[in-house]
Structure formats: C-alpha cells, structure tokens
Specification:
CATH topology of chain B: Translation Initiation Factor IF3
CATH architecture of chain A: 3-Layer(aba) Sandwich
Structural class of chain B: alpha+beta
Number of domains of chain B: 1
CATH superfamily of chain B: TusA-like domain
Number of helices of chain B: 2
Helix content of chain B: 25-40%
Strand order of the largest sheet of chain A: 4-3-2-1-5
Largest sheet of chain B: 4 strands, mixed
Shape of chain B: globular
Oligomer: heterodimer
Largest sheet of chain A: 5 strands, parallel
CATH class of chain A: Alpha Beta
Order of helices and strands of chain B: EHEHEE
CATH class of chain B: Alpha Beta
Strand content of chain B: 35-45%
CATH architecture of chain B: 2-Layer Sandwich
Radius of gyration of chain A: 15 Å
CATH superfamily of chain A: DsrEFH-like
Number of strands of chain B: 4
Shape of chain A: globular
Distance between the termini of chain B: 22 Å
Order of helices and strands of chain A: EHEHHHEHEHE
Strand content of chain A: 15-25%
Distance between the termini of chain A: 22 Å
Helix content of chain A: 40-55%
CATH topology of chain A: Hypothetical Protein Ychn, Chain: A
Number of strands of chain A: 5
C-alpha cells in the first residue's frame, strides 16, 4: 500500500474540491502518500487571494443540492480547505501546480496559497505517480 | 464492555467522513506501540472505515460496539 494515490484537480468548484480533499485525507489516514496536480480551474481555486471565496458548485447540484451543501458548510462539514489542511498535517501530501496552467492563468507561485508545495510539469507528476492509482476530478 | 486501560479518548461525534479516521490517525501518532485508543463517532460510515483502516494500517481493532447512533471503537497501536 505504499504506492501513492494521485489526484488531478481540474475542476474548481467547491463540491469537487471537497470530494478530492476527502480522498486525500482518507489516503493520508491510511498512511498512503498523496500526490496532487492542479490544472486550470482546480489551480485557480488555490489563488491566495480567493481560496476562501465561494467557488460555486458543479452544474448538477441544482437549487436543492446547493442549499444542502450551504447548510452543511454552516456546521463545518464540507470545507475543502480545512479537509486538505488536515490531510497535509497528517500525512505525506504533496500539492504541485501544473506549469502550463500557471502560464495560461498568468500566475506565479507567490500568487498561490502556501498549501501548494511547488510548480512542476506533467512528466515529473507522472514519474512521481509511479504505479499508484490516478483520479481525475 | 471490559476494563481496558485506555490511554487516549478521541471524541469524533458529529464529524463526518473522513474526519473520524483522520482524527484517529493523528491521535495514534501521539501514543506508544501497544497503547489503546478509544474513539466515539456518530458517522455510520465509520464502522466500515475503522475495519478497513485497522486492516490496512495494522493497528488492531480490539473492541467495537454501537449504542443509539453512537459507535465506539477501541484500537491498539501497532
């Protein structure tokens, strides 16, 4: 069980980020390394100036779903930033920003939340992924 | 319930998946090998989670029971 679990975060809505954060925290609790690669809107959500902002929900949420998620957040359930921070405190969780996405969005690492460990290309991400499972969200 | 020498208690009541096992994994790091940790959770998913977590990490699930929506787990650190 030492192979990492590899998460590619493409989407930047709060529900998808929380789904990813749950996987990361669960893997960290099991002692498995977690490698996260941030692309496009997943990366955009980690901008330091708006990481805590409302990033909206996936279109399938609908009105009732959105209300349920909002209600849960009031009780502290479903906060992806907190969940990811807990995962990082617990285990080996490395978060890398995709250098192409950084270029497209005109970002420097100093624009990102300190949770992001670095900027790297896809080759480095794939090599570090080893034979571990890969999930695209 | 038996008389167990519980070293640390973790109250994960009200926390939803995956926080009960996250808090437990954190707590486990603070005790020594062989020590017992008791966890109380209310998340129904925690029953299967603790069984899987115990099997995967090698920390032994010594006792487990439930009472009115509360789930109790006693784990021995590997």
């Amino acid at each position: 069980m030492d192979e990492p679990i590899n998460l590619v975060l493409f989407s930047g809505t709060d529900d998808k980020l929380q789904a990813a954060a749950v996987l990361a925290a669960g893997a960290a609790a099991l002692g498995r390394p977690v490698r996260i690669f941030l692309q496009y809107w997943g990366l955009d959500a980690f901008r330091a100036d708006r990481i805590a902002a409302d990033h909206g929900l996936a279109p399938e949420a609908g009105e009732a779903g959105a209300a349920a998620v909002k209600e849960a957040l009031k009780t502290g359930k479903g906060d992806w930033v907190a969940t990811l921070q807990a995962a990082k405190e617990l285990g080996d969780v490395d978060i890398q920003a995709c250098s192409l996405s950084m270029d497209i969005l005109k970002l420097a690492q100093s624009d990102l939340d300190p949770m992001v460990d670095g900027v790297s290309g896809v080759a480095a991400f794939l090599i570090n992924a080893g034979d571990g499972q890969m999930v695209f969200i | 319930m038996t008389d167990l020498d519980i070293k640390l208690k973790v109250d994960a009541s009200g926390l939803s998946c995956p926080l009960p096992i996250v808090r437990t994994a954190q707590a486990m790091k603070t005790v020594s090998s062989g020590d017992l940790v008791e966890v109380i959770a209310t998340d129904p998913g925690s029953v299967k989670d603790f069984e899987a977590w115990s099997k995967s990490t090698g920390n032994v699930l010594v006792e487990q029971d439930s009472n009115g929506g509360k789930f109790r787990f006693v784990l021995r650190r590997k």
